[in-house]
Write a structure and sequence with these properties.
This protein is an alpha+beta fold. The chain folds into two domains: 194 residues, Jelly Rolls, CATH 2.60.120.10; 108 residues, Homeodomain-like (Arc Repressor Mutant, subunit A, Orthogonal Bundle). Helices cover 42% and strands 22% of the residues. It is built from eleven helices and ten strands. Strands 1, 2, 3, 4, 5, 6, 7, 8, 9 and 10 form a ten-stranded antiparallel β-sheet that branches. The protein is globular.
């Protein structure tokens, strides 16, 4: 299904709202953008599909229920692999790896980690499944390789029960939550998911550490404490950390991000929090306090990341404060 145009607002798709003769083509077209091909062309009146997606800054939360279906993921049809955590609420699903002949049965109640990085054949019958799908740039800070098997069970992880309960609560209560409440829950679900993924990465030997990891961690900490400084730059940070600019750049390259990109991300996150929680500051003041000298550039970068202007973002949270 297409990604929502607004963050933290449930985006709904129901096959009942689509004319029967158009159901298969529309659903197939929506799935194709994710590299998914529908195998069986069922009778239109037999197609049941109820999807809900909530997009956040860190990724998506999805709830999907569907009738019997067979789909195939083709890795060549997407730019990046996808890794996600899912909970089977109802029914069961079978995942077959087409090249390595691996096969996994996922039953009701299971919490699993799955990476779409190869050809996979999915078979499901009357399945309801909840997903936490982080943006690939979040995942790349954790994984430097790919999982060695299609599915990894997370049921024994110490956060599993907590994550399951909150995924279910969000599914049941999303219609009653305002934008502020939804953002807190969705973002925290993603934080928990990334913690669990990091534990799996350690077990699998995929954690992004690197020879210059100590420099990256020190620089990241300094940026988070000093993002409001207008003169903050890679040269200044390397001077503060007493390392060469080349070493600093190598440390960030190991993590797949640049110094300036991290500075921008930290500043925009800080601006978002001020917009939500401080209604006395003008937007220009927030821009300046978060390290942006050029207000127009701040507005442009904010819109690129959050898909709306700073004013619209503040207005969306007006009733939540």
């Amino acid at each position: 299904m297409p990604r929502p145009s607004a963050l933290y607002v449930p985006h709904l798709l129901n096959a009942k709202d689509i004319e029967p003769e158009e159901r298969f083509s529309q659903i197939s077209h929506n799935l194709s953008s994710y590299g998914i091909d529908v195998v069986n062309n069922r009778r239109p009146e037999d197609i049941i599909a109820q999807h809900k997606t909530i997009s956040g800054v860190m990724g998506d939360y999805c709830s999907a229920f569907g009738s019997k279906n067979d789909t195939i993921f083709d890795p060549h049809k997407t730019k990046d692999s996808m890794i996600y955590i899912s909970l089977i609420v109802q029914g069961n699903q079978r995942i077959d790896g087409r090249e390595n002949k691996s096969s996994t049965q996922i039953d009701q109640g299971m919490l699993i980690l799955h990476e779409r990085n190869d050809y996979y054949h999915y078979q499901a019958t009357d399945v309801k499944q909840l997903y936490i799908i982080p943006h690939i740039d979040q995942v790349k800070t954790i994984f430097t390789g790919k999982l060695n098997r299609p599915v990894i069970s997370l049921d024994n992880h110490h956060l599993a029960t907590f994550l399951k309960s909150h995924m279910l609560l969000l599914d049941y209560q999303s219609a009653t939550l305002n934008s502020k409440e939804t953002s807190l829950i969705v973002d925290n679900l993603h934080h928990m998911a990334l913690l669990m993924m990091a534990d799996v990465a350690k077990e699998q030997g995929l954690i992004s550490e690197g020879k210059q990891n100590h420099i990256f961690n020190a620089a990241k900490s300094y940026i988070k404490q000093n993002f409001s400084q207008h003169e903050l730059s890679p040269d200044l940070i390397s001077k503060i950390l007493r390392c060469s600019r080349a070493s600093l750049d190598r440390a960030f390259n190991e993590q797949g991000i640049s110094v300036m990109l991290l500075i921008k991300s930290v500043r925009l996150n800080a601006a978002r929090e001020l917009l939500e929680n401080n209604r006395t500051l003008r937007i220009e003041q927030i821009s300046w306090l978060c390290g942006f000298v050029n207000h127009s550039l701040f507005s442009k970068l904010f819109r690129e990341k959050y898909k709306v202007s700073p004013k619209t973002w503040r207005d969306n949270f007006k009733g939540s404060l």
